[in-house]
Amino acid sequence: LLEAKAFAQGEVTTTFIEDTFKYKTPGGPTDEQLALASALTITLGDPDYFFGASWSSSRWREYPVTLEEGDTLHQLKAKREDHQLIITTASADVTINSLSVSSAMGALQKVHYQIEGKPLCEATFLQEGATLYLDVEGSSFTFEDKTWAPTDIGDQTSDGVVRAPMNGKIVRLAKTEGETVARGDVVAVLEAMKMEHEITAPTDGTISNVKVKQESQVATRDVLLEITIN
User: Fold this and answer.
1) Long-range contacts of the stretch 109-117 (C-beta < 8 A, 24+)
2) Nearest by Cα to 207 from 172, 173, 180, 182
3) Integer Cα distance of 140 and 128 in angstroms
């Protein structure tokens, strides 16, 4: 990828990127490569999470990350400790000691990072929406950020409790107590990572108990409202 003539000439197009990354590196990403992709996903959306103080409250320290790579869905967890980031993969805890992003050719960017106290390393990446193209240690990967993807609507066995799927701020309550809803109706909108995410009713019923207000800050799994199932 880095030796591609199009990159040297600044002719990076979506088609070129997709063609370049259409293969899957045999064996998939290592734990450290997954950790790097997770750290990039978080810091590109909100640099203050890693470097700043806006997330210093203990209730905001842990952060879920879901990345799709090929046919594999990776469920990870990020935890900030001082100015380090601990990424928990399915098989290991990986410490990101430092991470800095700098501009590169065209739309490409370079990231300099240190993992587990090893020497500083460099990787190249491109972010397009929820897609992260990462060229690291001679391997190329395409990650799709599914962390904020709408959750499944659910089924009739739902208990009617609607919880926050992530840390963020409630920017709109679409329903009030006493209103009836159908499964899949939008009941609230949550802002996180500079994006708005619709939260839907998991079942048919009546809004019976709204626990939050507009502009409320919520943490992952906080109860937002309850629905009395009809």
Assistant:
1) 111/36, 111/40, 113/36, 113/39, 115/32, 115/35, 115/36, 116/32
2) 180
3) 16
Q: Are 131 and 125 in contact (CB under 8 A)?
A: no
CB contact burial 29-55 (16+ within 10 A = b; e otherwise): bbbbbbbbbbbbbbbbbbeebbeeeeb
Dihedral pair phi/psi, residue 34, rounded to 5°:
-65, -40
| DSSP strands (E only) in 62-108 | 62-69, 72-81, 84-88, 93-103
Sheet holding 180-181, edge to edge: 161-163, 223-229, 205-210, 180-181
Task: Quote the CA–CA distance of 69 and 91 in Å, as a whole number.
Answer: 17
Token digits of residue 22: 């259409």
Non-local (6+) Cβ contacts of 44 within 8 A are 101, 127, 132
Do 108 and 92 meet the contact criterion of CB atoms below 8 Å apart? no
8 confidence band (pLDDT: 50, 70, 90): very low
Give SS3 for 121: strand
Distance CA 29, CA 21 (A): 14
- Find all residues with CB under 8 Å of 194, minimum gap 6, and list them: 45, 46
Residue 222's pLDDT is what? 85
**The whole model's pTM is what?**
0.63
- On whether the CB atoms of residues 178 and 226 are closer than 8 A, the answer is no
